[in-house]
Amino acid sequence: MSFPWAKHYEPKHPLMQWIDSRLPLPRFVYNAIGGGYPVPRNLNYFWNFGVLAGVALVIQIVTGIVLAMHFHSSAAEAFNSVNVGIMRDVNAGWFLRFAHANGASMFFIVVYIHMFRGLYYGSYKAPREMVWLLGVVIFLLMMATAFMGYVLPWGQMSFWGAQVITGFFSAIPVVGDWIRVWLLGGYAPDDAALNRFFSLHYLLPFVIAGVIILHIWALHIPGSSNPTGVEVKGEQDTVPFHPYYTAKDGFGVGIFLIFFTALVFFYPDALGHPDNYIPANPLSTPAHIVPEWYFWPFYAILRAFTADFILPAKLWGVLAMFGSILILFFLPWLDKSPVRSANYRPVYRTLFWVLMVDVLVLGYCGGSPADPAYIIASQLASAYYFAHFLIILPIVSRLERPRPLPGSITEAVLGTTKTA
Amino acid sequence: MATEGDPSVLENPRRRDYLQFAAVAVAGVGAGVTVLPLVNSMNPSADVLAASTTEVDLSAIEPGQAIKASFRKQPLFVRHLTQAEIDQADAVPLGELRDPQSLKERTKEGKAQWLVTLGVCTHLGCVPLGAGEGEAKGDYGGYFCPCHGSHYDTAARIRKGPAPKNLEVPAYTFDTDTKITVG
Amino acid sequence: MTSLLMRSIKFLVGLGFVGVLLIALWGTISGLIREGTPQTAEQALHEHPKELHLPSNGPFGKFDLAQLQRGFKVYEKVCAQCHSLNLVSFRELAGLGYNEAEIKKIAKDWPVKQPVFDNKAGTWGERDNTPADRFPKVYYAANGTPPDLSLITKARHDGAAYVYSLMVGYTEKPDAEGAKKFPEALKSPEGLHFNKYFANLHLAMPAPLTDAQIDTVKYTDGTPTTVDQMAQDVSAFLVWTAEPTMQQRHRFGVAVLIFLIFATILGYGAYRNVWRGMKH
């Protein structure tokens, strides 16, 4: 690709030569994740999480396809097809179901770490804006997929989650109620909604896979970023992806699977909510509706808007919740600092950790009951969230005086000074 | 310490390179074992395997008549043979048959008049005619499969056409003289 | 002019959101000052479940089949009057250690029958249960809606401990301070019964396990039949009904984890081997 010293694909086996000259797929793979992709030599373990996200997607697609063979997408049968059919009668069905449910959580954990990695090391900055934008698109698609997947078992949280989330759209002036009824295909979640959610839940992962290909394509134009944020200057700064990073990622996948296995086999319900083991009841709302943990920060932002000011509070909440994600699209232009890595930006580094704590506070509040103490914390934390991205970050990126950067990646790695 | 990034380290297996091979091999085994539950989940589930037995009441079936029942979601033929049909079946030399079996082997001791078979043609699985009132019984007076023209005789043995085997006799027992339990 | 607007739009949007949040914050705080957070009767009197030590607890828990059989007996003789177990099949009782003949007999003798629709007559009739059937639904006409118990230990926080606490909680005294503060909350409305482990404090179910049930249940394995023992056993049984494959899950988990730790150590070795001599 863009590095002149990248190794070229030279198939030795006649079969590979035959294929490669007719359909250069082997060459494509070699240049994407093989020996033909030079990668900075100094990536730390946080750079494992892109590959781990890919592994999580594959786990979700494989287990999901098999689960779909046993699932009945009708309001009358969905709960039992999961809780009797899959969990009791289907061979290894309990394993597939727990793997899929906890696989979603693992996917989000990995992607959140991947995103915070990008935030800390400034991976969203030029020339990698497109990589970041496509990543945010993937994140949005994941959220939609996870939400619809959570509806499928048709428990109490499934049903009321569908009710509440589609209720967001009724906040839109004039056409909101019509949009909500259109989304559900009825006045409340029922067969029509369940069937379309199932259909889309099956479709979207493949769309995600497509956008991931674009994400990786866009990444390969400038090449991977690295912890110093200093661009690759020459061959000594890089190693070929294979075998160096395939080996490192293999080890990372092992660690990932150990955590995943511990969840699936020993704590399969730890991240779920007991109410989803109660069949959906359209006449009785659970005492305390919460989404899955990975939506808690956004749920806290939604609930923080309790005052009507020009617009109704509900509309503010929905705007802010979607806005909190849409802001990420503008991040490359909000942070204009030429230095990427927070390692060389003392002020930004502090801000990063404050933001991290802020999001954790939002998450904790989003998973808690709507008591005044939690609402106050959510309001403060939400205010900081918006202030961080829209006010503080643009100003800091202008005024901050960064620490001196190393001359090159190799210089940073070998610890030599100035002479490289 | 080897030279930095020395490609020979990677290309000539030596020293501790068995580690890579071992790691890849173990990962391969793990992936292979992981496929097992995925494949196994497509086998019949416990509720299908437990699919209960079928009871059939024989009291209303007159000689020469047959009824269709359902056993494990497949059609089941229960036929009350007339003496003429029994004689006709017994008269066939076993050597002439594609799937040699006597009527006696295909019925219960002392109950030669009760022929219980699955209604699934052994060719490609259509339901043969002949059990319902007024249906074609084929050239041999038993069952006739309209899909590809297999003819079965009065003992439901294949006599003509593409089917390779006789209609299958499922496991069943007589609870009383007029009631059987299949399965 | 336009470029200035473009440059400052982020600040305007940010200030907008922050401003509205501060207004909302003011509303919350002033509301809090005006009204405070009065303690509710539920907060004062509702209690978390007591601890319950079952062999199935924890990541490596196992079932005690004798206890599960006793728990099934409690369910059969007491709970089954009102609560169904509709997600469980009779054949699954093999997991409790019953043999085929015993299961057939349990199914056949089960007092609630399977409904069957007569296609000729167009009416509903009923037939005996078979091992392949799921436990039939129990229809309950009186006050309250007894939930199906199949998944109850998964469908409540603290699962088995909650069931156990609820069973033995009818006779327990409420918190003295809370009782002094909310004397009204202790009086059950008509047809309801006080239990401090129930979220709303009053529930339609009367104490299901009392000394009156001891003769009905009567353990035959030598275990003394007490209310506390019956409550423990039925909780253990309901852990099993919620996930009969739990023990299998734990067993597979140990094997998978051992394999993965081995493979990952090997993977780490391979990783270090590939990178040897490469400073990074």
From TrEMBL, chain A:
Cofactor note: Binds 2 heme groups non-covalently.
Cofactor: heme b
Record-annotated membrane-spanning stretches: 45-71, 92-115, 130-152, 159-179, 199-219, 250-267, 315-334, 346-367, 373-396
Record-linked PROSITE patterns: CYTB_CTER, CYTB_NTER
Annotated keywords: Electron transport, Heme, Iron, Membrane, Metal-binding, Respiratory chain, Transmembrane, Transmembrane helix, Transport
Domain Cytochrome b/b6 C-terminal region profile: 231-407
Residue ranges of domain Cytochrome b/b6 N-terminal region profile in the record: 15-228
UniProt cross-references to InterPro entries, sorted A to Z: Cyt_b/b6_C, Cyt_b/b6_C_sf, Cyt_b/b6_N, Cytb/b6-like_sf, Cytochrome_b, Cytochrome_b_C_euk/bac, Cytochrome_b_N_euk/bac, Di-haem_cyt_TM
Main localisation: membrane
Membrane topology: Multi-pass membrane protein
Superkingdom classification of source: Bacteria
Homology family: Belongs to the cytochrome b family.
Known role: Component of the ubiquinol-cytochrome c reductase complex (complex III or cytochrome b-c1 complex), which is a respiratory chain that generates an electrochemical potential coupled to ATP synthesis.
Subunit structure: The main subunits of complex b-c1 are: cytochrome b, cytochrome c1 and the Rieske protein.
Name of the protein: Cytochrome b
Organism name: Sphingomonas canadensis
TrEMBL record, chain B:
Compartments it resides in: Cell membrane
Enzyme class: translocase
Reaction catalyzed: a quinol + 2 Fe(III)-[cytochrome c](out) = a quinone + 2 Fe(II)-[cytochrome c](out) + 2 H(+)(out)
Keyword Transport: yes
Limits of the Rieske domain: 83-181
Membrane spanning stretches: 18-39
Chief localization: membrane
Cofactor binding summary note: Binds 1 [2Fe-2S] cluster per subunit.
CDD domains: Rieske_cytochrome_bc1
Keyword annotations: 2Fe-2S, Cell membrane, Disulfide bond, Electron transport, Iron, Iron-sulfur, Membrane, Metal-binding, Translocase, Transmembrane, Transmembrane helix, Transport
Cross-referenced InterPro entries: Rieske_2Fe-2S (IPR017941), Rieske_2Fe-2S_sf (IPR036922), Rieske_Fe-S_prot (IPR014349), Rieske_Fe-S_prot_C (IPR005805), TAT_signal_bac_arc (IPR019546), Ubiq_cytC_Rdtase_Fe-S_su_TAT (IPR019470), Ubiquinol_cyt_c_Rdtase_Fe-S-su (IPR006317)
EC number, as in UniProt: 7.1.1.8
Any Pfam family hit: Rieske
Cofactor requirement: [2Fe-2S] cluster
Membrane topology term: Single-pass membrane protein
Complexes and interactors: The main subunits of complex b-c1 are: cytochrome b, cytochrome c1 and the Rieske protein.
Protein name, as recorded: Ubiquinol-cytochrome c reductase iron-sulfur subunit
TrEMBL record, chain C:
Signal peptide annotation: none
Keywords assigned by UniProt, alphabetized: Heme, Iron, Membrane, Metal-binding, Transmembrane, Transmembrane helix
Keyword Ubl conjugation: no
Transmembrane segments: 12-33, 252-271
Pfam family, one: Cytochrom_C1
InterPro entries: Cyt_c-like_dom, Cyt_c-like_dom_sf, Cyt_c1
Protein location: Membrane
Segments forming domain Cytochrome c: 66-202
UniProt name for this protein: Cytochrome c1
